[in-house]
Amino acid sequence: MSWDWEFAIKVFPEIFNVIWLVIGITFGAYAVALVFGLILTFARRSSFKPLSWTVYGFIEFIRSTPPLVQLFFVYFALPLIGISLNKYVAGILTLGIHYSTYVSEVYRSGIDSIEKGQWEAARALNFTKSQTWSKVILPQAIPPVIPMLGNYLIVLFKETPLLMAIGVVEFLQKAFLIGADHFKYLEPLTIVGLLFLLLSYPAALLINRLEKWSNQAYGKGSR
Amino acid sequence: MTKNPVQNQPLVKYEKVSKKFDDLEVLKGLDLDINQGERVALIGPSGSGKTTIIRMLMTLEEPTSGIIKVDGTPLWHKEVNGKLAPADENHLRKIRGDIGMVFQQFNLFPHMTILRNVTEAQVHVKGIPKDEAEKRAITMLEKVGLGEKVDAYPLQLSGGQQQRVAIARAVVMQPKIMLFDEVTSALDPELVGEVLEVIKEIAKESDMAMILVTHEMDFARDVADRIVFLHGGLIEEQGSPKEILENPQSSRLQSFLKRFLSTT
Ligand SMILES: Nc1ncnc2c1ncn2[C@@H]1O[C@H](COP(=O)(O)OP(=O)(O)OP(=O)(O)O)[C@@H](O)[C@H]1O
Ligand SMILES: [Mg+2]
Predict the structure, then answer these.
(1) B51 C-alpha to ligand 1 centroid (Å)
(2) Whose CA is nearest to atom 1 of ligand 1?
(3) Which residues face B77 on adjacent strands?
(4) Closest-approach residue (CA) in chain A for B118
(5) Quick check: B115 and B141 in contact, CB under 8 A?
């Protein structure tokens, strides 16, 4: 079997067109991860112990089971108790919640790096709890971890082929379908690899930039 | 009884206040009154509880027992059916508005410009319109000699400048009492003077009460109406700066001052 340029050029647009779906799923799941991750972070810090323990257990459970199992559970098992989700929603939620447990750890590290003096200054100025979070803590805790958060966007993107297991036609599934039609797998699979590279690499460069920027913000390193 | 509860009432009253950190008893039933507008310097050896006293008033540390009253209202307690119950955050917030504090480590918000550092709480805590808050902030920053630096970020300033911003940030909130915790001890020696000058200036111009924890005896003499010497979790001796610094009675205060004057 040798490389067939004509075939490759013919099927490229077909595979490329899936890009919007993949990007949609990636950003959808990422948004879920960012928001739900923050909720987990707050719940984990709650002084109401039953809540923080439950959340701790949930996080450990999600992290120690494979995302594929979670995906099957959400798509095939939840309907048995009356929760039916279409495959896109199921995919976005599962990936999003899975990565929210990692994202929440990233938030936590950002928050823990804020000095005690910042909390105390906010208290001395009589900010409310929510003002303290929104004006003092989070604006300092998040920027330094943006690169780490960005890495999870790339990781999440690379996990999207998982969703073929529940019938979502993303890059990999598309390549298989085309390959099966023509009994030629080399070209479509190569194209898929290339597309992942083309999207991930610039994203990684961008994250590098962000890292440099966040190290210099607010006059850091100027004295 | 017909006594007027507001007149002649101390602004802050510590009644038998104790504080333990695990097994360590830092304060052992402290009784201390601070009058309206009075400037009190707290001195004493390291570990004698000076910081703890003002942190409890700033609601950063809860007393183990005893009562702290601000304007006659218990700070850490709420009266429910004539009994004292632990205060909730709402109650603490209400009273905390009368109290301001400057920390040893400045604790400016590094992600905000100097101007925003001094404006943010005015707007969001006191509800002052933004342009008015900025005007007041600029006036205040000029007063502490930093009118030029409004657009800088804290990390671009020297320690002495940062501490002056921190003072402006607290004073602009117009508390009834300001707490200063060794505000020059994190500074290089050549920057101490500028910060102490600013505090003296503010003390002269305003009628806020102040509690100043300090190791700078000359400064205490200049600013304080009364100096309180702490030892072992209790007040060992107190009086006017003249009495305390020039005619100390207890041998502990005498040796404290001697050690002090010989090391500085
Ligand atoms: N959060 C805490 N947990 C445990 N121990 C504490 C805590 N805060 C203070 N202490 C201890 O309480 C004692 C009194 O502390 P405090 O900071 O009030 O003393 P200080 O008079 O301000 O001393 P210094 O002059 O060194 O600042 C010290 O022994 C200190 O180690
Ligand atoms: Mg101290």
Answers:
(1) 7
(2) B21
(3) B86
(4) A125
(5) yes
Question: For strand B234-239 and strand B226-231, is the pairing parallel, antiparallel, or unpaired?
Answer: antiparallel
Is the C-alpha dihedral spanning A96, A98, A104, A107 positive or negative?
negative
- Cβ contact A126–B101 (<8 Å): no
Q: What is the pLDDT of residues A145-170, one digit of tens each?
A: 999 999 999 999 999 999 999 989 89
Q: Is the pLDDT of residue B22 over 90?
A: yes
Q: Give the chain A residue nearest B95 (alpha carbons).
A: A126
pTM for this model (two decimals): 0.89
Q: Which of B105, B157, B173 sits opposite A125 (nearest CB)?
A: B173
Alpha-carbon gap, residue A112 to A119, rounded angstroms: 11
- Residue whose C-alpha is closest to residue A138's, from A115, A176, A111, A175: A111
Q: Walk me through the domains of chain A, giving residue ranges and CATH numbers.
A: 5-217 (1.10.3720.10)
Q: Is the ipTM of this complex over 0.90?
A: yes
Is the pLDDT reported for residue B1 higher than 90? no
Q: Is B181 left (phi over 0), alpha (psi -120 to 50) or beta?
A: beta
Q: Which residue of A has its CA nearest to B175?
A: A125
Three-state DSSP state, B74: strand
Q: Is B214 in the pocket of ligand 1 (CB under 6 A)?
A: no
**Burial class of residue A69, CB neighbours in 10 A (0-12, 13-18, 19+):** exposed
Residue A187 neighbours by CB under 8 Å, 6+ apart: A3, A4, A7, A8, A11
Q: Is B159 on the interface with A (CB under 8 A)?
A: no
Distance B104 CA to ligand 1 centre (A): 13
Are B25 and B18 a contacting pair, CB within 8 Å? yes
Q: Choosing among B109, B120, B140, B151, which should be mutated to test the A contact, i.e. which has the most A CBs within 10 A?
A: B109
